[in-house]
Amino acid sequence: MTLPPDLDERSTAALKELVVQLLGEVAALKQTNAELRAEIARLKGLKGPPTLKPSGMDKATDPVRPVPTGPPQRRGKVKPRVVIEECVLTMAAPDGSRLEGYEPYLVQELVLSVQAVRYRRERWQTPDGQTLTAPLPDGTHGHFGPNLRRFVLMQYHQAQSTLPRLVALLQSFGLAISKREVQRLLTEGQARFLDEARDVLRAGLATSPWISVDDTGARHRAVNGFCTQIGNDRVPWFGTRSGKSRLNFLALLRAGHSDYGLNQAAFDYMRRRGLAAVVIARLAAAEATHFADQATWQAHLHRLGIAARAEPGRAVIQDPVTIATEGAIWGSIHAHGFLCDAVVLSDDAGQFAVGRHALCWGHAERLVHKLAVFTDRHRVAQQRIRALIWDFYADLKRYRRHPSQRRRRVLRARFDRIFRRRTGFATLDRLLARLHANKAELLRVLERPDIPLHTDGSENDIRAQVIRRKISAGTRSEAGRDCRDAFLGLAKTCAKHAIAFWDYLGSRLNLPDQPPIPYLPDLIRCRGQPA
How much is the pTM? Predict the structure, then answer.
């Protein structure tokens, strides 16, 4: 800013106005500096503690619950999930006393015992020279029984115990087991659990009207990576990869498939992403529409003369190979029946903006909440905008419960009045303009009242991965990484369907007298059907 030659020539009012203007510019520079510091910390793999308390918008806009007028409710009777044994306790009563019944008193106990069995397996030799050996009991794989395997999986994945502590606990029970053997129990022979976790994602993507997504840091092989959460109120799934690009996210949405497809969904995606019309025409004119793997797809692009505009590792504004590959993966997703009419709800991270996209209102309001202010005028403007957003959010909640075309028109017009305001606070005005540019995603709920207004469910699900990251240095093998993600998703899926993870493990490990647990993908498909 250019200052006049002599400030003494300016009036007191002009000087005050200049000071207020300079304070606003300083606040904007501090805000930009804070954002740059946060971005640098993110790129370094660091994450500092939060400096602001949550805004509390979601809880504050909930409908007021009626105050109970009757006597306070007491805790219900204790109902254990196990069979209750009866035991009669007697006592010596004085002569002439009369028995008047029994006073029930329930005691719950946990019995932990270690058992070692040496099986003497019969070995027979048949007349043709073959040797037959008596099989081991069902569920026994290796030198450790299914109950021990269930306990290890439960303690490590749901109880979030570390490997050294788990080994110390088992050894304190009297088991002769090493750290390497516990590691094998956690990672080896888990193909059926990995398949079920993959099928859980497929069932969710095929039947759910919406999914919410989020990601967090996760280390693998001593390198910083990212764990992506995909799910909703019925389906949680986790996948850890080295990057967090849109290409990576689309690959995760394929749910284990590795093919590429050119169909109407693929070409629509390419047009929305601004791929050149000549490239789209070249792809559409080719006879091949399905490609089994990445090598086949890359060879097809090479035959058509479609190449990247820059060397690998260098960013470009529009890379035709990247966009065409994203479109082909999106075509594969639709070809498998995934996300055909579902809404993808995210926190405005760029890699999640695919398909029918919606934005989280909690993250949008948080931008206004954490805005740095240094003058009373700016603080008043910030609080006024926050109040308007809170009232609008409360009305969106009411609309979800009772949608109507009239309310939809009113809310759209009201959104424009709020986010097109000019407050005189330059940083706030730019933020409002940015939020107004996301109008379609923020108001997706008006056309789809069944979707939530925030991504709190994803943040709650992925918190378990954050805890695991704090207590563990990360995974060192592909099997360990996949098992960690799969069992975390299976445990969360069981919780969302009111299934005890202990019972689930017992059913899958074929323990005797264990009630059968339905195949989780079938349960998701059944509950996803309209009533």
Answer: 0.83
